[in-house]
Amino acid sequence: VSEWDLVCNNDWKGPFSMSVFFLGVLVGTFIAGQLSDRFGRKSVWFGTMAVQTGFSMIQVFSPNWEIFCLLNFFVGIGQISNYVAAFVIGSEVLGKSVRVVYSTLGLCISYAIGYMFLPFIAYFIRSWRMLLFILSLPGLLYIPLWRLVPESPRWLLHKGRIQEAEAIIHHIAKKNGITPPPVLFNDLELEEMKAKSVISHTIIHLVKTSNIRAITIINFLVWMILSIEYYGLSLSTPNLNGNAYLNCFFSAAIEVPAYTATWLLLQRLGRRFSLSGALFLGGGVLFFIQLVPSDLSALTTTLVMVGKFVITSAFSIVYVYTAELYPTVVRNMGVGVSTMASRTGSIISPYFVYLGAYNELLPFILMGGLTILSAVLVLFLPETINNSLLETIDQMQDIKCFKFRTPGSNQNHSVQNEMGEKSDGH
Questions:
Q1: Distance of alpha carbon 71 from alpha carbon 53, whole angstroms
Q2: Which run of H or of E encompasses 22?
Q3: Is 165 exposed, middle or buried (0-12, 13-18, 19+ CB in 10 A)?
Q4: How many CB atoms are closer than 10 A to CB 255?
Q5: Which whole-number Å values give the CA distances from 205 to 12, 213, 267, 382, in the listed order?
Q6: What digits encode the pLDDT tens for the residues 216-271?
Q7: Cα distances (angstroms) measured from residue 132 to each of 38, 60, 78, 112
Q8: What are phi and psi of 99, to 5 degrees?
Q9: How far apart are CA 158 and CA 204, in angstroms?
Q10: Contacts by 3-11, CB closer than 8 A, 24 or more apart
Q11: Poorest-confidence range of 16-25, 128-137, 290-299?
Q12: CB–CB of 220/326 below 8 Å?
């Protein structure tokens, strides 16, 4: 802000630079989802991580605001795409009992810990260029992980790469002390897999049938609204009374118990009511903020943190829920499109915060109303708890009038699901 004089008539450039970043994330999720379903989860994961790290380092040398924004766009392309790819590959490799732990305590808490370190590092490093460079360095840690992370066996099977999938399954079984059968798939099953592997899927398949179309539209709206509130609350913490660094730290720290609570919640309750309940509570808290007297700033800050706690939990739930709603053939694409909707909300969110300059309650009123709307929409989605992951779009045909029928009732349920559940301990 001070280096490029982003004040007075140029104050719009601050939130605009964030919107450019989220626009890049929007483009990245749209492209990465389709590339991941076509070329593999692992390749896209590491490729987008390289894009994020490389352009972040180049961004350090930005000579002006315009170049900074341009590079911010490319950083955004890589930023969320590698997160989604990592989430999907973990969901497909791990069994049911471990999948939720990985999604909540694994990925999400790691994100929260990194978020907590941000204000700590920023407090001691006041130069934005040096801060950006230091924050880019952890991306280099991904390089040696290439040899350790396997490709998704589910994706390999659907691409007809049977031998590679079998080798990974045998390796996983060995690590878990399980002796797999000598022959994992008989000739008939191999022929069926090879026949399915020639069928390509595009983004059109996400709206091809009435069932998957309804799920996609509702997911799109819920993810967009949820992102507006999540980033709106995160970006508004500097506007709260008190130390900006401490407020940022508290905003990050609240995510750790939120993700832990989500993990506990998903062990006992269904995805649909857990997500809808969290959204209802979050929207209610945001509406209540406007009733707090202006001299009770501590109470306002507390309510914002409660709202952040609830919405963080909802964001963690929606990742798990969305991955379970879509079949393997379009899962990464489905999560990618949902994340693209989320990025649409992210692009808008800085301007929700900007409205606080005119009326500090207006952002919370708008975010609260939209959040309650999303809570109602979630109630129309099918339940997925304790069900195996879907494999093909044909299995989604069983969803009628938003009622989810257990995939296990399908006689043609694929054998790789059975193998995944047998090795559920990994």
A1: 11
A2: helix 13-39
A3: buried
A4: 26
A5: 39, 9, 31, 19
A6: 889 899 998 888 877 766 655 555 566 778 877 887 888 888 888 888 888 778 88
A7: 33, 6, 16, 18
A8: -60, -45
A9: 18
A10: 3/128, 4/64, 4/65, 6/65
A11: 290-299
A12: no
In angstroms, rounded to a whole number, what is the distance separating the alpha carbons of residues 425 and 378? 31
Is the distance from CB of 56 to CB of 117 less than 8 angstroms?
no
Taking Cα atoms as reference points, which of 357, 367, 354 lies closest to residue 308? Answer: 367
More confident call, 236 vs 39? 39
C-alpha radius of gyration, the chain, whole number: 22
- Alpha carbon 186 to its chain's center: 37
Tokens of 351: 């301007």
User: Is the CB of residue 194 less than 8 Å from the CB of residue 165?
Assistant: no
Cβ neighbors of 58 (< 8 A, separation 6 or more) are: 71
3-state secondary structure of 403: strand
Most confident of 23-32, 33-42, 162-171, 175-184: 162-171
* Residue 169 CB-half CA count within 13 A: 30
Report yes or no: 45 and 89 within 8 Å, Cβ to Cβ.
Answer: yes
> Distance between CA 73 and CA 28 in Å, rounded?
9
Question: CA 228, CA 154: separation in Å to the nearest integer?
Answer: 33
| CA distance between the termini of the chain | 48
pLDDT band for position 419 (50/70/90)? very low
Separation of alpha carbons 104 and 41, rounded Å: 20
Please tell me the pTM assigned to this model: 0.65
Q: How many CB atoms lie within 10 A of CB 253?
A: 18
Q: Residue 403 forms beta bridges with which residues?
A: 400
